[in-house]
Amino acid sequence: xQITFLGTSSGVxxxxxxxxxxxxxxxxxxxxxxxxxxxxxxxxxxxxxxKSSQIRRIFxxxxxxxxxxxxxxxxASCGLAGNVSRIDIYGPPKLNEYLxxxxxxxxxxxxxxxxxxxxxxxxxxxxxxxxxxxxxxxxRVPAFGYRIVEKDRIGHFDVKRAAALGIxxxxxxGQLKRGEAVTLPDGRVxxxxxxxxxxxxxxxLVYCTDTVFCDRAIELSDQASVLIHESTFAHQxxxxxxxxxxxxxxxxxxxxxxxxxxxxxxxxxxxxxxPGNTIQLKxxxxxxxxxxxxTLMAHDFLVHNIERAAA
Length: 311
Known about the structure:
Blueprint: E1 2-7, E2 21-26, E3 31-35, H1 41-46, E4 55-59, H2 65-68, H3 71-81, E5 87-91, H4 95-106, E6 114-118, E7 122-126, E8 130-136, E9 144-150, H5 159-164, H6 171-177, E10 181-183, E11 189-191, E12 204-208, H7 215-221, E13 226-230, H8 238-244, H9 249-259, E14 263-267, H10 281-291, E15 295-297, E16 303-305
Helix pairs in contact: 7-9, 9-10
């Protein structure tokens, strides 16, 4: 699992940062899942190593423009390229209405199927390998955070031990590798889990934006491998954060600490902290690390691999 940040600014783009979008690459499936799609996201794709033809799912957190204004353009370009088979889009109420209105007014026809799913708190999808859950956050419009959970895997199958037990190779090995109990021709019952190593824990990615600090963000982020959390304001500007229902760097860190995540990555920064100003983004990082040391600050085109936990 690999994350690429395509936009890390809040509200408006800057010279160094585009508005919100994060891509999750699943190399084993040649798929890309996109989280939010701010204006210019398709240009960011062109500047990255990602392929828009591999986009299979898009998850939208809420209907503010800096998270959706790039969606219609990206979908239209994918259609003109003719190299996308299907895209499923998940998001809050009004998302489908927005897209249908854009299509109608611009007379755009997609050459591939698009399915829009209106999300509610709970499980959004389960494709056998990954499950996706969402939770309502605290913002000025309906906003959702997403949790992607990779299924646990059976540990390494001990072929030598199986052979030493006189278990004939063939389809039986497949059943045992899946952890199933198998009855041999001689009547012995072999439990496959006894021949497999420790279970390989699935990875968990959480994407939380836009929101002020809330208990539901902590619940959604529980034990995550990586938490991507908005950090629009510095701690000094907490009053602004409460007024606008955004998070400070310290709020993001408090969520990470309370949820016992392994890694926190900050994103969605206000342009007010540009170089040369009294408070700069390095100060937001320092504030967060004082509470949760394992914190990174995202920048556009940052690539971060989510590694499996050691057995």
